[in-house]
Design a protein that fits this description.
The chain is an alpha/beta fold and 343 residues long. The chain has two domains: 241 residues, ANL, N-terminal domain (Rossmann fold); 87 residues, ANL, C-terminal domain (GMP Synthetase, Chain A, domain 3, 2-Layer Sandwich). It has seven helices and 19 strands. The longest helix has 14 residues. The termini are far apart. InterPro entries: AMP-bd_C_sf, AMP-dep_synth/lig_dom, ANL_N_sf. Pfam families: AMP-binding (PF00501). Keywords: Ligase.
Length: 343
């Protein structure tokens, strides 16, 4: 597979480039002061160097961030699988509004380069479509960006959301838009997503280059040999429908044993999402009587909770304590680090 390749239809901010011209531009960006262009410049230079891999840092959601190497050939396979699954063909328009420090942003650039899209690059902000007048065939965002862009989504034909789970409140808002909106499932080790589902649909469909199964914990196991020669064993509890479809239930490392009862935070959060107008999560805290008790943590100034806030919860799902935090500690990609936000 040829690695030093630019599709003849590839455009970057409206301009076509040879490899030499693109590297020269990247070196200019690398010496500049705009961080997002510095990062993209470094990616371009690394992509066209003599190594067969790209280095990147994992998000650090479940442990310390670490540097790993992704094979360029595997990244190309992932890029082509995404383009095929979402039917984003050569000549399509795309917007890069995520950081290229992380796998989602890197792959958005590589897809455009390899498949031949016309890619615009914009600084990653909370409102990436603000003051934008162009129409795009394909855009990737994190949930926070989508939350701030509901009114502007009419400018996007297909939107994929990654980096964190789409909560019920956001999903309800997205039912009103004409854009095809997908929630994706993946990680750095699988070179971004291996599955996606339309927002509002229960189960994820697996992309062509992967299949899924379950381990003895009930957690997802991913086989995607074109992007990772090893099986990827996750900590995500799932219901397997078949080897190309699954339902996500929650993280096994988030499961709480309270007084001998297993509680699934993500399922409790789903029930609470329509009743809490702020970001929040539920987690556990040591308790002398129960072993662990359920705690609700809300990103807000303290306020009086409505009487019916727990109306949809089961007997053992009701939090024993509520905490208010002014600002959540999170990863650079916007994932809440639960353990660092509990008082």
């Amino acid at each position: 597979m040829e690695l030093n390749y630019i599709h003849s239809n590839f455009r970057l901010n409206g301009n076509s480039y040879t490899i030499e011209e693109l590297i020269a531009l990247a070196k200019e960006w690398e010496l500049g002061t705009q961080e997002y262009l510095v990062d993209l410049g470094r990616l371009i230079i690394e992509w066209f160097n003599t190594n067969d891999y790209v280095s990147l840092t994992t998000s650090g959601t479940t442990g310390p961030p670490k540097i790993i190497h992704l094979k360029k050939e595997a990244m190309i396979c992932s890029a082509k699988a995404t383009a095929s699954f979402f039917e984003i063909t050569t000549g399509s328009t795309a917007l890069l509004c995520m950081s290229t420090k992380f796998v989602g942003g890197k792959l958005m650039f590589i897809r455009s380069l390899i498949v031949g899209w016309s890619l615009d690059v914009k600084e990653p902000t909370a409102r990436p479509l603000d003051k934008n007048t162009k129409l795009y065939d394909f855009v990737a965002m994190v949930p926070m960006q989508v939350e701030n862009s509901i009114e502007e989504l009419k400018k996007v034909k297909t939107l994929i959301i990654g980096g964190a789970k789409v909560n019920q409140s956001l999903a309800d808002k997205l039912k009103q838009v004409t854009t095809k909106v997908y929630e994706t499932y993946g990680m750095t080790e699988t070179i971004t997503h291996i599955a996606a589902k339309r927002v509002g649909v229960a189960s994820f469909s697996v992309l062509s280059h992967a299949t899924v199964s379950q381990d003895d914990r009930g957690c997802l196991v991913i086989s995607a040999p074109t992007v990772n020669p090893e099986l990827v064993i996750t900590n995500d509890l799932v219901e397997i429908i078949n080897n190309k479809e699954f339902k996500w239930l929650g993280r096994v490392d988030n499961v709480i044993n309270s007084g001998g009862v297993k509680l699934f935070p993500e399922q409790i959060e789903e029930k609470l999402s329509k009743r809490i107008p702020y970001r929040f999560f539920v987690a556990s805290k040591e308790d002398t009587y129960l072993g662990n008790k359920l705690v609700l943590v809300i990103e807000s100034e303290q306020y009086t909770l409505p009487n019916d806030i727990y109306a949809e919860l089961g007997k053992y799902e009701k939090p024993r304590e509520v905490q208010f935090v002014s600002k959540f500690v999170e990863t650079e990609t916007g994932k809440i680090i639960r353990k660092k936000n509990i008082q």
